[in-house]
Amino acid sequence: MTAPFVAHAATRAPETGTRALIADRRAGESLPAEFYVSQEFFDLDVDEIFSQSWIFVATEAEITDPGDYVTITFSTRSVIVVRDDDGRVRAHHNVCRHRGARLLTEPSGSTGTLVCTYHSWTYGMDGRLEFADDQAPGFDKSCYSLRSVHVRTIGGLVFICLADDPPADIDEVAAVVEPYLTPHRLAEAKVAKQVDIVEDGNWKLTMENNRECYHCGGHPELLNVFFPTWGYSDTDAIPSRLAPAFDRFHRATAEQTEIWDRHGLPHTRVVQLDTRATGFHIERDALDLAGESFTLDGSAACGRLLTDIPDARLGRLSMHLQPNMWLHVTSDHAVLFAVIPVSADQTLVRTTWLVHRDAVEGVDYDLDQLTGVWETTNQQDADLVALAHSGISDPAYVPGPYSTSEIQVEAFVNWYVTMLRHRLDIPAADSSSGAAGA
Question: What range(s) does the Rieske domain occupy (predicted)?
C-alpha cells in the first residue's frame, strides 16, 4: 500500500519559468541546470522538500542519555533533537519563545536544561518554559513552550519533519524496514566516529551520485568488496566486462542467502523509491571476498559483532530513504549517511560509524581499518560531485540520458520532481509522466 501525495499551500509561489521547468521535466534525463544552480530552486528545495518530508538527522546512539542533544541546521532552519528526562526522543525548533534567539549553537552536547544565553529563558527537555525572569503579572509560562517538531525513531534512526502535517506513510515505511534493522540493535550501539564533509555541489548531485555505481571505477578501495553490478535491474544489460564480478556475485549471494535464511534475517529487496511520499529502498546484499565488512579484504573490522548472530558473513543491509539518507549495516558495524543542503552549491555529508556499545577501540577494532574504505570513498565522491556541479554550471551543459544501471537516479529525480509538482500544484506537461501512485 502506498500513501497518496498531499498538496499544500506553497511557502512561496515559484516564477513562471520555474514552474515550466518542473512541469516539463523529461523522464530518463538529468535535470536542467537551473535545478542545481539557481537560488530559487534551492529555496524551493528547502521549503518544499526538506521542510515537508521526513528527513534523517541522527542515530539514537548519539543521544543515549537524558539531556544529550544534536542540532540540525539547513538554510535558516535549526532544530534541536534531544533525549528528555523520561528517555523519549523529542525535537524542537531552535528558537527562543522570547525574542527568537538561537538556544543552542553547538552541533551536539549534553545539558540539564535549554537556556537562552540572551535573556536566560529556560526550558526543560520536553520544551516547556521553566523560567522567565521579570515578566508582567499574569504571565502564563505554559503559553510559551518551544515549538515542537515531529520526530520518529525507526530501528535506532531518528527522523524529523517540520511540516504541520507530515507524510502519513511513515508508519507503513517503518513496518517494512524495522524487521530488517532490528536484529542489528542500532539503538543500543555507540558512535565510533562521525565525520562531516562539505561537498562543493548541489545536494541533488550528492544524492544522484550515491544512487548509482556507474562511476564506481573511481572507487577501487570500495570495489574490493562492493559488487559493481549493483543497479542493473535486467541481468541481460550487464556489460561483458562485468561478467566475472557478476559470477562472483551470484555465488556469494547463494552462499550468504543460506546464512540469512538460517538466522531468520529478512533479505528481500523492497523498492518504493518514487511511488510514495516517503520513498525508500531496503535489501540485504552480498559482499565480495570474505563477505563480512567494508574492509580491503572483506573481513570484519570489529571483533565484537553488532548482533547476537555468531556468523560474521552477513553481507550488507542497505537502505535508501528520500530525500537525504542511505546506510550500510554489516555484522560488525553500521555506516550511515545524512545529506543536508548548505547552499545551492554546497552540501554537508555527515557519516556516522556505529559499533557494539561494549566494543573497545584498540582492543576490538582499529578505527582506521573500520572507517578507512568509506572515508576514502567519501572524498572520491566529493571530488566527483564538485566536477559535476562545475560542469553543470557551464552554459554548454544540456541534460543527458541515464544509463541502464542508473535506475535509482531516475527514481530519485522522479520522486523529487513529483513532490514539487504535487506540493506546488503543477501538472506534468505530459500526463503520462510522474511517479506511480501519485
Answer: 54-160
